[in-house]
Amino acid sequence: MPPDNPPIAETRAIEKFYAQPSGARVQVIAPTNLEIMPGSFTALLGPSGSGKSTLLRMLTGLVKPSAGQVLWHGEPLGLRQPDAAIVFQNFALFPWLTVLENVEAPLQARGVDAAKRKKNALKILDTVGLDGTEGAYPKELSGGMKQRVGFARALVVEPEVLFMDEPFSALDVLSVETLRNELLELWLGRKIPTKAIFLVTHNIEEAVLLADRIIVLGRNPGSIRTQFGVNLMHPRDRKAPEFTRLVDYIYKILTQPGELPPPPLRPSPETAQRAAEPPAPLPHTRPSTVAGFVEILLPRQSAQDIYVLADDLGMEVDDLLPIIDASVLLGFVRVNEGDIELTAAGRAFAEADIQDRKEQFREAIQEVPLLRRIRRGLEHQAKHELKDEFFLDVLEEHYTDKEAQRQLDTAVSWGRYAEIFDYDADSGKLWLTEPAENESVEA
After folding, report:
1. I need a surface site. Which of 121, 182, 228, 397 has the fewest CB within 10 A?
2. CATH number of 287-364
3. pLDDT tens track for 246-291
């Protein structure tokens, strides 16, 4: 019986060696087995000379293995062509062609007619942020823009697997950060039909930032020293302990060829459980409603029974509970055995003027999981903006489509009130509005 989730591509004991006149042979890659699974973002790490690029080229059919087999959907290369595209380090653009013509080139090679070529090329140029540059020549573009053209040319054929061979190593630091974030947005937001990504890199942080699976090669000859999954949520924080532990672990593997260090400590059960749980749902209450509620509580000197309070306000308890939940989440009230009272923070909020309330509300939502996740996601983007689809995709893993949208709507109303981020419904775009985060960055 075939497996439920078979690999897209796999290698079976493939190796690469070169025969010498003396009859000896130079072994570049030892017999190697690996798999590319659907839905995976794999990073292949290794020192110079470990055969990373050679392995990628054998997977894609550009280089023939000296022994072993490469299979795509269970069939050997040659009997089946790989549905793949490659983004190279050196851009590899045709200097005599325009941006549009460069992106159309692989479609033309596949015999796609001119009208469809142009339509598909323009669509993917818009996806990678190059709308309006179709008539430019490569010499007129910055390094970051050239590599965007490389991405567009690879993605226009809608490859099943996108291979990338050190795609960011020729770029400046600012362009690298921007392109990494944009690649993640396309991948996590399911804006490209690609089913898997395979990245060759020598940059340890880059691998941990992007990939959900890392393979580390040794050299002389090249062989897999270890491989493991990366169970960190996106966007990833370079300063997080789990992130730095993984980076240190990989560094030790690469710098200690004689031994394999123990794997990094797993997160505690409590940390692992929190990572697996959805962000705590937001009560569907507007900030202005919370403000009005704490104002009502302000003159009441003692704790109030929730049912008596609901009756005084002429409300059903079920209608009052979301307001109470929001006020508790923000730290403005506390509830004890059915009685509710203002906290010191809630009293200060009720007594503050409008601007001070906004500042106190902003401070109160710093530790609200969903708001924190949205803010961190925006902070990690070069232009501090993201489409709502990115966050909806995350929420829809835990909630129904309708509830995911309600959660995002509530988060937007809270973020707007606190003047942390804003949202445009027509474009579906969220962006940071805090002055400290308002600087734009160009790649």
Report:
1. 397
2. 1.10.10.10
3. 998 898 888 876 667 766 655 444 444 444 445 568 888 999 999 9
